[in-house]
Amino acid sequence: MSQVEGYILRIATREWVNQVFSMAIYYTNLRRTWRRGQTVLFVHKTSVGDALVGYGLIEKAWEKDELCEQDKCECEKGGWTRAIEFTYVKQFDKPLSNAY
Fold first, then answer.
1. Which pLDDT belongs to residue 49?
2. What is the rounded CA–CA span in Å between residue 9 and residue 21?
3. Run of H or E residues at 58
4. 3-state DSSP call for residue 51?
5. Given this structure, which CATH class describes domain 6-93?
């Protein structure tokens, strides 16, 4: 059985894009086998359609009950069940799209 080496995650809002790249954390309901060292590519809707806006390297995925109170409140506010913490994240200066 092969292991997934990474994922592509779509960030829904501009506010959440800023949060991911400033806090290096992504809140989600997705149930996956998140592993330390996996690469995540971030996609966000731009004026020319969906585009890659950056990437990150997973440090750890936390279930909501494992989080500190502040992060637990964020999860409850958004209706999320877990948080993915990144070792680092990199936002591209210009989103990469397939628009010509």
1. 85
2. 13
3. strand 49-63
4. strand
5. mainly beta
